[in-house]
Amino acid sequence: MYFDVSIDTFKIYIVRSGIMKQGNIKIDSISKSFDGVEVLKNISFEIKGGEFFSILGGSGCGKTTLLRMIAGFIEADKGAIYLGKKDITHLSPNKRDVNTIFQTYALFPHLTIYENIAFPLRLKKVKEAEIDREVKKYLELVKLSEHANKYSSQLSGGQKQRVAIARALINKPKVLLLDEPLSALDAKLRQHMLIELDNIHEEVGITFVFVTHDQQEALSVSDRIAVMKDGEVLQIGTPNEIYESPANAYVADFIGETNFIEGEVVEVEENFAYLESTSYGRIKFELDKEVMVGQYVKLTIRPEKVKVTKSKPRYLDDNDNIFKGKVEEMIYSGFQSKFFVTVGNQLFSAFKQHVDFFEEDAETIHWKDEVYIIWDSADSFLLEVI
Amino acid sequence: MKNQRNGLVYSAPITLWLTLLFVAPTLIVIIYSFLKKGIYGGVEWIFSIDGYNFFKSSYFLKVVWNTVEISVVVTFLTVLIAIPVALYIATSKYKNFLLFLIIIPFWTNFLIRIYSWISLLGNNGLLNNLLIKFGLEPHQFIYNKFAVILVSIYAYLPYAILPLYSAIEKFDFAIIDAARDLGASKMKAYMKTFLPNIKPGIITATLFTFIPALGSYAIPKLVGGNDSQMLGNVIARELTITRDWPKAAAISTILTIITVIFIIVLSKYDKDHKGGKV
């Protein structure tokens, strides 16, 4: 695809022009209420310079409010925001070294694509010849040179997105804010733009703050992710940390699908412990946190780490948990099948990739079949002591 | 070909309507303007351009100037006031209620609303009574150009607010945010992105104000003075008092021509606007 070409051009351009500005952001005890409803509750965290940082959360979690606050459209009730060492809490949007890609792109419908991209430079009263040179460079970068004289209403969603990117980057900001920029695109194009965003980020080297409700988007491109809920940051970490070691049940459930198991701790060894659960019985799990016998705990186990077989595999060891259940529901989705298996009175989900690696993988599992579900006790994660 | 014929059939009612009630009367007026004046009013069917000899009269040229001047000032001020009002309504939580308030004056007869201005501005009106009460000199507010302009703005404001409102309602305010984000001050963002994008609304509001203002009759008649007689008043006088029908028709024709020129100029300006959501 031509996406790759534009990225190469970008590399050369960035190296030559040296726009390797970096911006770190410090959010310091920010609170904000709208009509008596607290949408941001004393939030503090830092975004490192040059990082691809995602703010992930469901609707109404406060992620967009926070982004608009960094952009300067909303003023905080309490707290401060720093860009580098500069306190930008009370600066108006036009005085911040920050540019935004808006959800609806917000291109200027009365201007051509060329003039849209030239807009920030015209405001700065840059000389005509330099404007022309810069705009043409950025048009080239986003592969829209032949569309320069069109209006935004004549462009496709992906092209509009490119114009928005060029328009935001021509200002050479220290931070680029992206407000759900992919939500208006179809699934295929979203993938492409995601890859492209990631590449642009790599080459430009500035901080990207990416707000999204889509955990797949966040997981695939971010250096770090902040998961938000009800105006609070629940967890900040790398995609791997967030997925493999979620801070709590909400994060575990929000980031991908998962199974929860609750029970009483009955035995504690050095690295492992056992719990007794009403629907499964005795379960061995790895200790991620300290627990004591008699405490009630909550475990999470990702469905892709659970194996489903019709016959009992021969290679089990004493670290594996194995339970018998019945297939209640199965969803075939090409590259994998999702099984929902009832164990006791619980519904347990397990994903099976369609590879025949072991002999039992070749077995065809049908609806209502009796199956074994198996997982390694190191693959579960101890979420919390209840 | 069949489709074209269907089009003719479908457009027949409106074509008939426009021909009977718009094209025909206009043509009659234009034809009358080139006829000879009847002795007791009416016309004689003899070709004559006497109807147009008013061009020699300096009084008439003054009236033309008055009409254009008052209409331009009224239109400019009306649109200038209507933009922020429409912006406020379009972004308000109570927009339905506010629109309702704009429409309420239409429930009362136009003439009665003008008369109520007389009782406000008149020499024994509310405003002068208040001035006297506070120990100030009374002032001549009425029967002058000022009164005509003020009452015209009042009368045409709703016609300007409504098209502006519908243009602003379609405007995506994220565009203002984008302009500010890219380095524009609040004022600049509105000047450079808001105004150009509501241009169709501004043009409609201008037309809806300027055209009725050009044809004003009742307002200058009731609150105007010698300095503020407009073409509408002269036409009425020629028709009813002087009973010079060709002259009245000729002035009407001139008024129509001024209006048409104005519409052509504005719609050309509108066409230059290529962007916008098509």
What are the defining features of this structure?
heterodimer, A: 386 residues, alpha+beta, Rossmann fold, OB fold (Dihydrolipoamide Acetyltransferase, E2P), 2 domains, 6-stranded mixed beta sheet, 26% helix, elongated, disordered N terminus, B: 278 residues, mainly alpha, MetI-like fold, two-stranded antiparallel ribbon, 12 helices
Order of strands in the sheet with most strands of chain B:
1-2
Overall CATH architecture of chain B:
Orthogonal Bundle
Widest β-sheet, arrangement of strands of chain A: 6-7-8-3-9-10
CATH class of the largest domain in chain A: Alpha Beta
What this model shows, in words?
- The complex is a heterodimer of chains A (about 375) and B (about 280).
- Chain A has about 375 residues and is an alpha+beta fold.
- Helix content of chain A is about 25%, strand content about 35%.
- Chain A has 9 helices and 20 strands.
- In chain A, the strands form 4 sheets. A 6-stranded mixed beta sheet of chain A has the order 6-7-8-3-9-10, sandwiched between helices. A 5-stranded antiparallel beta sheet of chain A has the order 13-12-11-14-20.
- In chain A, a hairpin with a 3-residue loop joins β12 and β13 (about 280-285).
- The longest helix of chain A is centred in the middle third of the chain and has 18 residues, at about 185-205.
- Chain A is elongated, with a radius of gyration of 25 Å.
- Mean pLDDT of chain A is about 85; it is low at about 1-5 and about 15-20.
- Mean pLDDT of chain B is about 90; it is low at about 275-278.
- Chain B is mainly α and about 280 residues long.
- Chain B has one domain (about 50-270): MetI-like fold.
- Chain B is built from 12 helices and 2 strands; from the N terminus they run αββααααααααααα.
- In chain B, a hairpin with a 5-residue loop joins β1 and β2.
- Chain B has a two-stranded antiparallel sheet with strand order 1-2.
- The interface between A and B is medium-sized, with 29 and 25 residues.
